[in-house]
Amino acid sequence: MSLIEVKNVYKVFGPKPERAIPLLEEGKSKANILKETKLSVGVNNVSFNVKKSEFFVIMGLSGSGKSTLIRCFNRIHNPTSGEILVNGDNILEADREALIEYRRKFFSMVFQHFALFPHKSVRENVEYGLKVQSVADDIKKEKAYEMLEIVGLKGYEEKMPNELSGGMQQRVGLARALANDPEVILMDEAFSALDPLIRKEMQDELLNLQSTLQKTIIFITHDLDEALKLGDRIAIMKDGEIVQIDTPEEILENPANDYVREFVQDVNRAKIMTAGRVMRKPKCVIKLKDGPGVAIRAMKDDDYESAFVVDKDRKVRGYVTISDAAALIKKGVKSIESIVLDLPTVTEDAVLDDLIADIIDSKHPLGVVNANGKLIGAVSKTAILAGISGEGE
Fold first, then answer.
1. Pairing of strands 184-188, 316-321
2. What is the per-residue pLDDT across 296-322, written as a single tens digit (0 to 9) for each?
3. Cβ contact 256:270 at 8 Å
4. Are strands 2-13 and 81-86 parallel, antiparallel or unpaired?
5. What is the three-class DSSP state of 55?
6. The dihedral of CA 194, 195, 196, 199: what is its sign?
């Protein structure tokens, strides 16, 4: 079920902004409308949904409408037309009191330039949203300390913002957003002002936090690599419209148009494509209880020189080679346990970049396993190279 539904939302800036909507429906461009009417189109007929606990990324170049769109969620900008449903309620119909409650308890926002109070301590900054809600002092302090520990700032509670690095200040902003325990965290270019190394650390930290806290995050960025790394799904915007919504892998594999295709052409696919995307059905699988004769027949039938070995529960135990199995027959040994070689296994969501070191030295495809450790696929060197290059295997 969707936590948030956005339906046919328009945001136009200027006097009598509704004048622009019929022109947009006629197919006139954002540039033409600005020239003819002096109205600026920020968001043009946008519709999508966000699921609970989803990491949803909205990306696009400057002027694409992404920051305008995210500000419609908490009505910093009031849409010109459309609906934004939160748990089925249209927040665009909320009165002032209800809107304040949404902003206090449902949405929290993290800004690009930190937006910390320079005259307040780190702890006081984190407490701010709780103070607005008239939370008791001891509870505020306890919550602030807890959130600062979660974001890795234990021991900095009484420091002033100007005593912290940019990355640490952004952690304070994130702790402040988390302190209210919101349903949704809105992050508008939150890491754009950070140095590249600190930015990467913050991306990793946010992913770790998300895996633990399972918040719904709507994240704005102009950086495709960042979007692909963070997003469960990505909405790509251009001139106020969404041109594609999909998973990172689908956007790489099936760009919706030339605009998206140009965006993704220089992406390092090894950091995005996963084992699940390139794996094939495992061939030549034998059981640990099988003898060397059975193993050899299986490998000959499938024209393979090695075979996966699984136990009775189909969990991977390793692999055997046809030459080692033949040697056992010569010795009269009936069990293959002594010739089972170690084999790394990976999960479906493992990115190809992390598999390269394992596959380079392996004479056998890697086994892909599910959450229970059962064999569900195989990844070969050829499959990894095909996935990285974007060509079929």
1. unpaired
2. 999 998 888 899 999 989 999 999 999
3. no
4. antiparallel
5. strand
6. negative
